[in-house]
């Protein structure tokens, strides 16, 4: 049956009358995004990881204009990031000496910028693909994946992290990674909305996926197995050095004394691990102290692993370089130890200046010639060798990158990550960071040692369970044992490719289906 232009306009006007005012829709979207933080650590109310995307899906009504869909998605994303990453305020204001008003503006701008991911998600969902749960979940994973590399990446606030300790769903992590967990959760969210709209067909799809996930949990396949060697005794040192003192030249000796004193009772353990940059100077400036620690380690048959800035003078070319390259690194020393790991994923503006070369051609920019950046480590580094085992490393922020950690985990027996989350004070940031380490342990079927300056220092098993953790903001030592494991999880072998192929096919089929239905409608 053909509809006249008048009839079509009447239907459009009727839809507009039924829809909520735009300001109310945007407010609900903003609150839906902001509420997602409660699904993550330290709150852990995981049902909100389903309810939050479900609200966004429900707000993206049929016959909505692309512009309206985009700003609804933008509002959701802005709420998500302004609240979910508000821990950045501590580093910007408290330690960056930025006025409170300016720090708040910077957080708001960050939220608006990161909100674009959800803005374009909503736009594509509205205008390009069919409006159904599979397409929505696929677009969601696309924007999460883009956050791991676009503009250097900011891979935070993924839906899958809310289910790190919900093993009925996180059992998918060693199979296809955190994005697979996110996919099922978002698909469940969108399907529930469709069920409330009395279109329950998609519940069959989500039911099948949940059966697969729950079966994996019940069967509990051992993707990796113990190596058969005795567990290793470890001591993780938490120095609790105040962030405003850590890099002061006059406090360097005191920092070294604090770590040396905390470690004095730990010599004789298999491994002693110090946090990121616990030696707050280049290795060639701390030769005497390092030699003394190595001497103690070898005398007590202990492996000493520490974070330290590493300056590579041998790689310096005065004709082309302004200064020798230097790295945020981890070094293994002492008994049965060898290796140096250089951090690959650097923090923009914290560890390097994006487009630094551009600044060099702006002679009138004050201080541009004094900007120094860490160098990036190669993505083809060998594991550390520790007591006859291969040890994979991740420094601070880079453990948030699933694929980087996966590559570093290949051919290793266990993993470590070191960090200095003092930048974020008592906010939720350090606890969100810990939750990511749990997910990386799940994905790769490996135990993790995590040593930090102020917390959270922890030992995590191959199932992502926290075996032991130290209290935050205390000068302490966390003692425990770790298990070496061998074998590869499916995620280690295939990475994100399976889930990316699946969402690509779903989006292609949805796009073709939308075109087909549109042509069929025009032909009536």
From TrEMBL:
Q: Does the keyword Heme apply?
A: no
Gene expressing this chain? lnt
Q: What family does the database annotate?
A: Belongs to the CN hydrolase family. Apolipoprotein N-acyltransferase subfamily.
- Which UniProt key words apply to this protein? Acyltransferase, Cell membrane, Lipoprotein, Membrane, Transferase, Transmembrane, Transmembrane helix
Pathway field of the UniProt record reads: Protein modification; lipoprotein biosynthesis (N-acyl transfer)
A GO MF label = N-acyltransferase activity
Q: How does it sit in the membrane?
A: Multi-pass membrane protein
Q: What's the Enzyme Commission number for this chain? A: 2.3.1.269
Q: Which SUPFAM superfamilies match?
A: Carbon-nitrogen hydrolase
GO biological process annotation, one example = lipoprotein biosynthetic process
Please name the HAMAP family in this protein's record: Lnt
Q: Please, which domain of life does this record's source organism belong to?
A: Bacteria
Primary residence: membrane
Q: Does the keyword Membrane apply?
A: yes
Recorded protein name is Apolipoprotein N-acyltransferase
Gene3D superfamilies hit by this protein: Carbon-nitrogen hydrolase
- Coiled coil start-end: none
Please tell me one Gene Ontology term that the record gives under cellular component: plasma membrane
The UniProt record lists the CN hydrolase domain at 237-484
Segments passing through the bilayer: 21-39, 45-62, 69-89, 101-125, 145-163, 169-190, 202-219, 491-512
Q: What class of enzyme is it?
A: transferase
User: Where in or outside the cell?
Assistant: Cell membrane
Spell out the NCBIfam families in the cross-references.
Answer: lnt
InterPro entries documented for this protein: Apolipo_AcylTrfase (IPR004563), C-N_Hydrolase (IPR003010), C-N_Hydrolase_sf (IPR036526), LNT_N (IPR045378)
Sum up the protein's function in the record's words. Catalyzes the phospholipid dependent N-acylation of the N-terminal cysteine of apolipoprotein, the last step in lipoprotein maturation.
């Amino acid at each position: 049956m053909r509809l006249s232009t008048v009839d079509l306009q009447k239907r459009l006007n009727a839809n507009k009358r039924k829809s909520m005012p735009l300001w109310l829709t945007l407010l609900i979207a903003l609150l839906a995004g902001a509420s997602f933080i409660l699904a993550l650590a330290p709150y852990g109310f995981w049902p909100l990881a389903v309810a939050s995307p479900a609200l966004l899906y429900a707000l993206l009504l049929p016959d909505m204009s692309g512009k309206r869909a985009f700003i609804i998605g933008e509002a959701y994303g802005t709420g998500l990031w302004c609240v979910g990453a508000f821990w950045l305020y501590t580093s910007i204001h408290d330690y960056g000496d930025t006025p409170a008003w300016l720090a708040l503006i910077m957080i708001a701008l960050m939220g608006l910028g990161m909100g674009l991911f959800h803005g374009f998600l909503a736009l594509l969902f509205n205008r390009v693909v069919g409006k159904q749960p599979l397409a929505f979940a696929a677009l969601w994973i696309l924007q999460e994946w883009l956050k791991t590399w676009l503009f250097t990446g900011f891979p935070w606030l993924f839906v899958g992290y809310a289910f790190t300790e919900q093993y009925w769903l996180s059992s998918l992590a060693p199979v296809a990674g955190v994005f697979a967990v996110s996919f099922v959760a978002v698909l469940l969210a969108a399907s529930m909305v469709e069920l409330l709209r009395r279109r329950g067909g998609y519940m069959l799809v989500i039911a099948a996926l949940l059966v697969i996930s729950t079966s994996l949990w019940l069967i509990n396949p051992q993707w990796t197995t113990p190596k058969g060697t005795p567990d290793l005794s470890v001591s993780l040192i938490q120095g609790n050095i105040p962030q405003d003192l850590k890099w002061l030249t006059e406090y360097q000796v005191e920092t070294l004394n604090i770590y040396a004193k905390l470690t004095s009772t730990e010599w004789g353990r298999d491994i002693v691990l110090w946090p990121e940059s616990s030696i707050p100077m280049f290795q060639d400036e701390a030769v005497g102290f390092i030699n003394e620690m190595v001497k103690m380690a070898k005398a007590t048959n202990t492996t000493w692993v520490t974070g330290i800035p590493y300056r590579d003078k041998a790689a310096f070319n005065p004709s082309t370089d302004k200064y020798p390259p230097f790295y945020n690194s981890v070094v293994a020393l002492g008994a049965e130890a060898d290796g140096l790991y250089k951090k690959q994923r650097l923090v923009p503006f914290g560890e390097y200046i994006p487009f630094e070369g551009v600044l060099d051609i702006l002679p009138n920019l004050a201080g541009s010639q004094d900007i120094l950046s860490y160098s990036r480590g190669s993505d083809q580094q060998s594991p550390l060798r520790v007591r006859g085992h291969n040890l994979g490393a991740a420094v601070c922020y880079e453990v948030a990158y699933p694929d980087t950690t996966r590559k570093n985990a290949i051919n290793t027996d266990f993993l470590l990550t070191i960090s200095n989350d003092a930048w974020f004070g008592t906010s939720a940031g350090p606890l969100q960071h810990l939750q990511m380490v749990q997910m990386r342990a799940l994905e790769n079927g490996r135990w993790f040692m995590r040593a930090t300056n102020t917390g959270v220092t922890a030992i995590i098993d191959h199932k992502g369970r926290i075996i032991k953790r130290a209290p935050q903001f205390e000068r302490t030592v966390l003692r425990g044992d770790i298990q070496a494991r061998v074998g590869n999880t499916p995620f280690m072998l295939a990475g994100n490719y399976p889930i990316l192929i699946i969402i690509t096919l779903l989006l292609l089929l949805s796009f073709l289906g939308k075109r087909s239905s549109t042509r069929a409608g025009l032909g009536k």
